[in-house]
Amino acid sequence: MLLLDERQDVHLLMTNCIKNDLNHSTQYVQGLALCTLGCMGSSEMCRDLAGEVEKLLKTSNSYLRKKAALCAVHVIRKVPELMEMFLPATKNLLNEKNHGVLHTSVVLLTEMCERSPDMLAHFRKLVPQLVRILKNLIMSGYSPEHDVSGISDPFLQVRILRLLRILGRNDDDSSEAMNDILAQVATNTETSKNVGNAILYETVLTIMDIKSESGLRVLAINILGRFLLNNDKNIRYVALTSLLKTVQTDHNAVQRHRSTIVDCLKDLDVSIKRRAMELSFALVNGNNVRGMMKELLYFLDSCEPEFKADCASGIFLAAEKYAPSKRWHIDTIMRVLTTAGSYVRDDAVPNLIQLITNSVEMHAYTVQRLYKAILGDYSQQPLVQVASWCIGEYGDLLVSGQCEEEEPIQVTEDEVLDILESVLISNMSASVTRGYALTAIMKLSTRFTCTVNRIKKVVSIYGSSIDVELQQRAVEYNALFKKYDHMRPALLERMPVMEKVTTNGPAEIVQTNGETETAVLETKPPPSGLQPANQANDLLDLLGGSDITPVIPTAPTSKPATAGGELLDLLGDLNLTGSPVSAPAPQIAQPPFLLDGLTTQPLFNDIAAGIPSITAYNKNGLKIDFTFERSNTNPSVTVITIQASNSTELEMTDFVFQAAVPKTFQLQLLSPSSSVIPAFNSGTITQVIKVLNPQKQQLRMRIKLTYNHKGSAMQDLAEVNNFPPQSWQ
């Protein structure tokens, strides 16, 4: 029996041998056969020998009955359909005085109830009998045969409690019948020994699993509270695990033991410490959030590294849900970043930036706190990133000393730049952190007045950085200083209030460090505030009316009446006699990089080169050239870059370019680089058009030009039909 199992071929030859032994005249031989079948019997053997097992289950010999009951458990596990065969034999099992038979009978009943709802309903009528047996065990005197540490047969008590838990689950009558005995067990069991604690633990599980009275549930939680004071680590761990399961249904009762639970955070055992941390977060609510966060922040400061990530995430979630004030919320998250900044999740930085941006009244206080937090310490990268972003946004408030919440500090513009430059050159700064710092320095060029030349010098230096990302930012910022300085204040103005969008995972911040990610073809309308409201990003339709559905949206759906891009109809009369719709002020539609869309550089990296350019309009000194680009990733999109030049002796002002395409196309008109075309061909205006042509039809376009020249308002229409085939095929 010790060397064989049901996978061995020889067991096929054993069925008859075991059957003979089951019918043997010696009870020990029969007992050995029952043990063999109960340990290694296959499903075929169980089917063949179930009748003999059932027969022995009805015998008067208690030695055989207890072994037959355990063998029946194995038979039911192997062949569940044989369960009903043992049902008649179970009727008298609970009347047995022998504790061994009682024990195995309860195990058999438990197995049958767990496997069959019908059996569960059938055996619920045995609850009063089980209650009597359990009561007799509690009230009986000393029995040396079954006594363990002064408790009568604790193994049988535990088995009965487990069976009562199954029978009382989701049943009011059964639960009512066992409430009193559970209360007796909970109050009369000795807790000085481990045996009593085992019975109490099973009692608690039974009380929590059935439909028990509220007072009884409080009694069970108090038992677990006493377990937390036990010197045995295993008992404390079991108590914490059980409380964690019940905290949602009996929150107030568990709250009474909050101080004991918090003390477990100081335990040396890491398993107990983790369970205590999880339970502490489950106990946080609006009433105790300040006290609990104080304890958890202390724990975060002193705990092992493997706890810091989970603890920081838990503090973030609890603070977001129960924060009593914006200032407390910001202080708490900053404390976490200061203590365990290297362990926080990736979304901690944008989440804090979003919180700070929306707390308008806290801007001066926050930027001052963050400035002091990173003085000389750049080890916590997320903290440095948030601090760099806030200094870039609110550096003027830091220098002016407008903080009302605490005593303002005296900081000069040069001192602020010293900190950001130190971040740039620090060996501890990651590439992302340096990007934050460089962008912050650039933003300060519109907030500081005395250090603009120093900022230009820093930006120019990093134009040759070996870090490609940093180099690209610096080159773009340097171009902004040299070519588009008149647009710099508008581009670098303060971020608006950010909106938080909910996804399937953690909430994401739409805008983070001032750069907005926009796809070339966005299928979901972005939230309001992503781009300037007066951008001319309308979809124009040649044949349609006023019911146009945007397919390539890059601007908010609700636009002011001043937005350009009116609808033109190629086949109908154009109402051009009235005053034209005013054009939008030149804005930057921020693509993935800051200056994309301002220059004639391609928007796509994978361009099908070789498309010839065309002259779309050339009249009265105004010349409009089209250059084309096609994307390999989406061949249906054609990107047209417009270049408008002026060969006359006077500049053309208030220039507005509008376009329309047939209804089978969809068109997106991005903002121009300027509204003034310099004279004598000394400069050009660039503007980008994206055309979606899913059916690959020949491209046609109607354009409308309005501008002021020599004091007169000029307006003209033209059709462009000479698009090269490579631009639309």
What structural keywords apply?
single chain; 729 residues; alpha+beta; 5-stranded antiparallel β-sheet; 3-stranded antiparallel β-sheet; elongated; coated pit
What does this structure look like?
The protein has 729 residues and is of the alpha+beta class. Helices cover 46% and strands 10% of the residues. It is built from 26 helices and twelve strands. The protein has a five-stranded antiparallel beta sheet, with no helix packed on it. Strand 3 and strand 4 (508-509) form a beta hairpin. This is AP-1 complex subunit gamma. It is found in: Cytoplasm, Perinuclear region; Cytoplasmic vesicle, Clathrin-coated vesicle membrane; Golgi apparatus; Membrane, Coated pit.
Query: Can you count the beta strands?
Result: 12
Side by side, the strands of the main sheet go 5-6-7-10-9
Mean pLDDT over all positions: 80
Largest sheet: 5 strands, antiparallel
Helical residues, percent: 40-55%
What's the assembly state of these chains? Answer: single chain
Shape: elongated
Alpha carbon gyration radius: 40 Å
Distance between the termini: 80 Å
Contiguous runs where pLDDT drops below 50 for at least 5 residues:
502-608
Structural class: alpha+beta
Q: How much of the polypeptide forms β-strand, as a percent range?
A: 5-15%
Q: Tally the helices.
A: 26
Condensed summary:
This protein has 729 residues and is an alpha+beta fold.
